[in-house]
Amino acid sequence: MNEHEQPQQEPANPTAPAAHSEPPQQALVKPARPAARGSAAGNLQKAASVVRAVMPVVQKMLPLLDGNVAAVVANLLTPGSSASSARVDLQPIEHALAKLQVEQRELRGQLSDQASTIQRMHQQLSALRDAAERSEQQLEEMRNELASTRRRIRVFSWIAIGALVLSLLANILLALRLAHLLP
User: Fold this and answer.
1) What is the pLDDT of residue 31?
2) Which long-range contacts (CB under 8 A, 24 or more apart) does 40-46 make?
3) Tens of pLDDT along 6-60?
4) Contact assessment for residue 18 and residue 8, using Cβ atoms and an 8 Å cutoff
5) What share of the chain is helix, strand, coil (3-state, %, to 5)?
6) Which end of the chain is more exposed for a tag (fewer CB within 10 A), N or C?
7) Would you say 60 and 83 are in contact if contact means Cβ atoms under 8 Å apart?
């Protein structure tokens, strides 16, 4: 064997650390775990704890939204008060919610009225369409009757004109014959 090669010794106890293993200081340190679900849950818990810590200050600062600086200063100066002890007045919200419910009922009523009106208009439109179709059919029938009557009148007028011409010719012949007979 070379001087660079070292004989490998297997430990008698497989659970015992090898002679060429890590130094004892590093063996006591926990190995780093790969990022997994546990780290996400840990981050979420850290974020929740930060929110819990900041929440009382934020609650004390909320009156700034209404422009009430004096209330914010009073909230910050009074150490014992917390937002949980303050009673929130829900009556305006309940009143607004009741008003919205009434308005919603009214809108539903209006919607149903509009739906029934649209239905009536649809029925009236259908009736009007049917009446227009009937009128168109009657008009077509009248046109056909008028054309037939026009042909009959034309034939009758030609017959009458023919009869008048024949009558006129007969009268002329009679007048000429009478004129020869009478000197």
Assistant:
1) 54
2) none
3) 555 544 444 444 444 555 555 555 555 555 555 667 888 888 888 888 887 777 7
4) no
5) 75, 0, 25
6) C
7) yes
User: How much is the pTM?
Assistant: 0.35
Per-domain boundaries in the chain? 40-77
CA dist., res. 108 & res. 106, Å (int): 5
First and final C-alpha spacing in the chain? 182
Distances from the Cα of 62 to the Cαs of 8, 67, 83, in angstroms?
71, 9, 10
The DSSP letter of residue 182 is -
Q: What is the DSSP letter of 9?
A: -
What token pair was written down for 100?
Answer: 């919205």
- Enumerate residues 6+ apart whose C-beta is below 8 A from 64: 72
DSSP 18-77: PTTS--HHHHHSPPPPPS-HHHHHHHHHHHHHHHHHHHHHHHHHGGGGGT-HHHHHHHHH
Contact by Cβ (8 Å): 76, 60: yes
**d(C-alpha 56, C-alpha 140), whole Å:** 87
Rounded Cα distance between 123 and 117, Å, is 10
